[in-house]
Amino acid sequence: MPKVFIERINETKKVKASTMKELLQKLNINPEEVLTIKNNELVTLETKVTEKDSIKLLSVISGG
Amino acid sequence: MVCKNCQEKPVFTQISNVKLCKQHFIRYFEKKVFYTIKKFNLINNKDKLVAALSGGKDSTTILYLLNELSKKTKHFTISALLIDEGIKNYRDKTKEDAIEFCRKNNISLEIVSYKNEIGFTLDEMLLRTQQKPCSICGVFRRYLLNKGARNLLATKLATGHNLDDEAQSILMNQFRRNNETSARLGPITGILEDKTFIRRIKPLYLLTEKEVAIYAFLKEFPVTFTECPNAKQGYRNDVRTMLNQLEAKYPGTKHSIVNTFLENLPNLKESYKKKSSLKYCKLCQEPTSKEICQACVLLEEIKGNLS
To answer: What does the pLDDT look like over B142-156, one tens digit per residue?
Structure first.
């Protein structure tokens, strides 16, 4: 299960998913609201993920 | 799955499902900003622009691009103005990012603080009023930006407002039956012209919040992707969440809202031009549509609660 760091809540979670899209669905995170980073590179939702990957979700909302 | 223009890995998917790699996304983004400036005639020769800089992704992006354009064309000048509201664990960090960015890019930066200008930080104000943080912050920030830009002899104030911000504002005004406030929106703000009121331009008007975040990330700007601690409490936050849910389900929703609004905006501005009058606040002499400006009304309330 890939480990995901969710920057907005400053938490790391383990999620069973094979693509970024599936991962966001399982975390109930709207793709409009995050940048999906895999191994320090920005990737699209169709990108495959494995448990070896380091995944980060950066919030795009600043509000100020 | 590769970029539509080359064989590189994509970093972005457009609404039309077209994929773009890093290099082509940057090209697409910059082209759209410069198209926006041209289409809405946002900058004229010899303009003295001041960019409202918070140190976040939107304002850093627009300051960077306007600075690049200024160096290239030499048609206008640009400097930056930062309003320090005094939000602990937020503005202190983004302020550092802003100072570092301006130093690196050799851009003049003026910092104006709530504490020095008004007497209280936002955090202190929140202890003395029942008002929501975003309502107070918005009023004083607009007030100090206008005053600060005018003191810097700006002809226009450039802000980092993006397509999401505009779509949210349009809906919020619609929901609150506030057409007059909507008439002040658009890529160039305001209804009436006056030398005391510095008009605002929004070169990121046609780009979504996510596109701006992608650009700032790819350009490795020294910005922290953090949210203002007060943002969750605002009405805007609910409208933003609703719009993002709609956008995920019906891609293109935000563009449709803004484009439809743009079709109606000239009539809206014209209609309120006849009804509006610009006055000067009896207490601080700043431009306002009322006898006493909103900043002075709020300040009196805050001071009143001190006694």
So the answer is: 999 999 999 999 999
CA distance readout (Å), B156 to B2, B49, B141, B227, B254: 41, 5, 16, 27, 26
Chain A: nearest CA to B54, how far in angstroms?
7
Whole-number Cα distances in Å, B167 to B14, B38, B226 = 18, 21, 21
Average confidence (pLDDT) over B107-128: 92
Of the candidates A41, A42, A63, the beta carbon closest to that of B227 is on A63
B12-44 b/e with 16+ CB inside 10 Å = b?
A: bbeeeeebbbbebbbebbeebbeebbeebebbe
Q: Which residue of chain B is at minimal alpha-carbon distance from A59?
A: B225
Interface touch B225/A33, C-beta < 8 Å: no
Closest CA of chain A from B11, distance in Å: 5
The model's confidence at residue A10, banded by pLDDT at 50, 70 and 90, is: confident
Contact across the interface for B10 and A44, Cβ inside 8 Å? yes
Give chain A's contact residues with B (Cβ, < 8 Å). Answer: 7-8, 30-33, 35, 41-46, 58-64
Mean pLDDT of chain B: 92
| Helix B294-304 and helix B133-151, axial crossing angle in degrees, nearest 10 | 120
User: What torsion do the CA atoms of B79, B83, B89, B93 make, to the nearest 10 degrees?
Assistant: 10
Contacts of B137 (CB under 8 A, 6+ apart): A64, B85, B122, B230
A60 CB neighbours in chain B (<8 A) are 57, 209-210, 212-213, 225
How confident is the model over B36-72, as pLDDT tens digits?
Answer: 999 999 999 999 999 999 888 999 999 999 999 999 9
